[in-house]
Specification:
15% strand, 10 strands, 3-stranded antiparallel β-sheet, D-Maltodextrin-Binding Protein, domain 2, 290 residues, alpha/beta
């Protein structure tokens, strides 16, 4: 399994899949990282509970690959993030208001691609800064505004691109002021939390649904000035699939509001830290909420 950051950054070769098979079957796809696979499983199992036949085509690859698969009708449903669609697909400037971002991508995808965005989940897999409960309590940290003036006393563990990206450290300094850390060290994505937990850093960059946040009881500081755009997840569905099987919309719209940031963290942790099968994790989630 890979993280969302690696999946967005990486381009893999596209494996040619057959177009939709029997018209009574709905092909459900996903990208190639834990969260996308688990959420696609939630969608697939919810549809099966509603009496629909589903074919799983999971772990396909990057955003470009899943969009190509939708265009070729090789998949008809997959989970996508509003921020990814806005920035990586539509090449639009960030929109920080979650509903405005959703409305923009929903309308643009319907117009340009013939793809329908169903209801978005409250789950938001955006950027963030995380710390331990002990450090948060010591420095009275709840928001990024709290952190900005005391950053000079703290050490940051991050990934290389965060140092130069406009929405990374330069963005924090521009929007919040301050944010001149005592030290900034870069790590591989998988090692920055280790640095935080072993005392080599005080703050670590994060994606807000990372499983490590749940398993290590970390505190994610609130982006109170809304630097980072929302990355709410939602089911993308082809118009042809909805026309053929109208039950898709009602079924998935009933599930989407139940996928919260906290629930996503827990599910990611179950797969990544405890080696649970994504299908089993999705089944447990659905049983607990439906």
């Amino acid at each position: 399994m890979t993280t969302r950051a690696r999946a967005i950054a990486g381009m893999t070769s596209f494996c040619v899949l057959p177009a939709c098979g029997a018209r009574g079957t709905i092909p459900v796809g996903s990208k190639n990282f834990t969260e996308s696979i688990v959420i696609a499983e939630i969608y697939a199992q919810a549809l099966e509970r509603a009496g629909l036949r589903v074919e799983r085509r999971l772990n396909l690859g990057s955003t470009q690959i899943t969009m190509a698969a939708m265009a070729r009708e090789q998949i008809e449903i997959y989970p996508e993030y509003t921020g990814t669609a806005l920035i990586s697909v539509l090449h639009h400037a960030p929109i920080t208001d979650p509903q405005a971002c959703y409305t923009f991508v929903r309308d643009a995808f319907a117009r340009e691609y013939g793809i329908v965005w169903l209801d978005r989940s409250p789950m938001n897999n955006s950027q963030g800064l995380a710390t331990t409960r002990a450090i948060a309590a010591r420095y009275h940290l709840r928001t990024l505004s709290d952190l900005a003036p005391v950053a000079s006393r703290l050490r940051l563990a991050t990934i290389p691109e965060f140092i130069t990206r406009p929405d990374g450290l330069p963005g924090l300094q521009r929007v919040y002021g301050g944010f001149h850390f005592e030290s900034v060290r870069t790590y591989d994505i998988s090692l920055k939390y280790e640095a935080l937990l072993q005392g080599g850093a005080d703050i670590a960059t994060a994606f807000t649904t990372d499983g490590a946040i749940a398993s290590n009881h970390l505190v994610v500081l609130d982006d109170d000035k809304h630097l980072w755009p929302a990355y709410n997840v939602a089911p993308l569905v082809t118009k042809a699939a909805l026309a053929r099987e109208p039950r898709i919309a009602g079924t998935l719209n009933a599930v989407s509001p139940l996928i919260t940031t906290s629930a996503a963290r827990t599910m990611n942790d179950q797969v990544e830290a405890h080696d649970r099968d994504p299908a089993d994790v999705a089944a447990v989630f659905l049983k607990s909420v439906v």
